[in-house]
Write a structure and sequence with these properties.
It is a single chain. By secondary structure, the protein is α+β, with helices and mostly antiparallel strands. It contains 12 helices and 12 strands. The two termini are about 35 Å apart. The strands form 3 sheets. The protein has a 5-stranded antiparallel beta sheet with strand order 2-1-5-4-3, sandwiched between helices.
């Protein structure tokens, strides 16, 4: 899960939980408030009935019923019972209404003065009224229809509000977090695309000192140091390689002159030829390192449009001069878009080096010193397919095929340092192209170069 999705989820869950707790708390508090309010109304009603019976001598139970029925404070489904000190019922407001009571309830009232309880849909309030002469017990029952309807309305309102605002919160949180984290996404994309060919990439940052900008500034500072170190390393490699070529050239010249000297014995010539072979390999390694160091220095040079078939012919010609025993078979697939696809924008010298290396590699590691080149198009991009017959690479070797100094098991008995394919890949990357290796058939190696338009 990405960071922005995790933040969106946590914020949304936090809001959902807090809003749910707040809604529950509001409902519980209002429910308790309704009960207390209704209890107070029942208490007032019960005490007023007792006081009328006790203190107003002109009021009998019939008159009290009439007063009770026409009172503006009359409660819904109200039922009032009044008992004397002997637990005898002396007043009942409505005959058809019922209150479940017992003598134990009245005894409880005498001890605790009041009680309030629920009986089904009714709420019952009991009160003990003590006078100098007599004791009275009053039980009043009613339904708080109005209060319960308001409580039901509040419940529906809270539930609907909870669902609605939770959905809104999830959508807005996701949108706002994505918007707030968009610089981090750009930051990630730029970091992802950084390689040795674009170490000058920097992440744009504003000066508002937020965490993303602080990270971007530190990243840019780190990239400055990495680029400087990398350039110093490449300059050292280039300078060292360049300086080594001169003494090696003199050594080669001296050895060749000594071999050509008639005074040199056959044993000495054989020994010098072995040394000359090793020095030539060392010279090839130095030239490869020098090419690698120069590739990045040429990436900003101006480029021109060149035809890849002409560069390929030139590479084949140069290869045949050095290795006349190599045979390159050539084939072009007919296609209406081929002429346009053959036009590639790039550095001619580097592209020729890349093609020469891949052709040489195909011939050296073949079992018959031959390679086949097919020029075709695929999805409007130019494809150069170079194949040979010989021992193929296993999966582990294929994973590291384009790493420096990597040589497979099929390289036994052949000279080289494992830099040729690395040079090819670096040059193709510089030209927005790519290279792949596959085994289409038994003992068949296939390299494909894709030049993207």
């Amino acid at each position: 899960m990405t960071l922005k999705n995790r933040i969106s989820l946590l914020v949304s869950l936090l809001f959902t939980i807090l809003f749910g707790l707040a809604s529950t708390l509001i409902f519980v508090l209002y429910s308790n408030f309704r009960k207390e309010e209704f209890r107070d109304r029942l208490e007032i009603k019960a005490l007023s009935n007792i006081k009328l019976l006790v203190n107003v001598k002109e009021v009998d139970d019939q008159l009290l019923k009439m007063i009770d029925q026409n009172s503006i404070n009359r409660l819904y489904d109200e039922k009032t019972l009044v008992f004397d000190s002997n637990f005898k019922l002396i007043y009942s407001s409505i005959d058809d209404a019922k209150i479940n009571w017992s003598v134990d309830d009245l005894k409880y009232l005498k001890k605790h003065k009041t009680f309030f309880k629920q009986q089904g849909d009714y709420e019952v309030y009991g009160v003990f009224y003590d006078t100098k002469d007599r004791d009275f017990y009053a039980l009043i029952s009613a339904t708080d229809d109005y209060g319960k309807r308001k409580l039901l309305f509040l419940r529906y309102t809270l539930v609907i509000s909870y669902i609605f605002f939770t959905c809104i919160c999830w959508v807005l949180t996701s949108f706002m977090v994505k918007k707030a984290m968009s610089p981090l996404g750009i930051f990630h994309q730029k970091i992802k695309n950084i390689n040795e060919n674009n170490l000058d990439t920097r992440v744009a940052s504003k000066n508002n000192k937020n965490e993303i900008d602080l990270i971007a500034n530190e990243f840019n500072f780190m990239m400055d140091r990495i680029e400087v170190s990398y350039q110093k390393q490449k300059e050292f490699t280039a300078n060292a390689s360049h300086e080594l070529r001169t003494p090696l050239s003199r050594i080669i010249s001296q050895i060749e002159n000594t071999i050509a000297d008639p005074a040199t014995s056959d044993k000495g010539k054989s020994f010098l030829k072995t040394i000359l072979l090793d020095i030539n390999q060392l010279t090839e390694l130095i030239n490869s390192l020098l090419i690698l160091s120069k590739i990045d220095n040429k990436k900003n040079e101006s480029t021109e449009m060149h035809r890849m078939d002409e560069i390929l012919f030139s590479a084949i010609e140069n290869l045949n001069k050095s290795y006349p025993e190599f045979l390159i078979l050539f084939e072009i697939e007919e296609n209406n878009n081929l002429d346009m696809a053959l036009e590639v924008n790039g550095n001619k010298n580097l592209l020729e080096i890349a093609l020469t290396n891949i052709l040489k590699n195909a011939c050296v590691y073949s079992d018959n010193k031959q390679a086949k080149v097919i020029i075709s198009t695929q999805d409007d991009q130019l494809v150069l397919s170079i194949s040979n017959t010989g021992e193929t690479l296993n999966e582990e070797e294929q994973k590291n095929l384009f790493q420096p100094f990597m040589r497979g098991k099929n390289s036994k008995g052949t000279t080289g340092f494992g830099l040729g394919l690395r040079i090819v890949q670096r040059i193709l990357t510089l030209h927005n192209a790519s290279i792949t290796y596959s085994v289409p058939d038994i003992n068949t190696n296939l390299f494909q170069l894709f030049f993207h338009s």
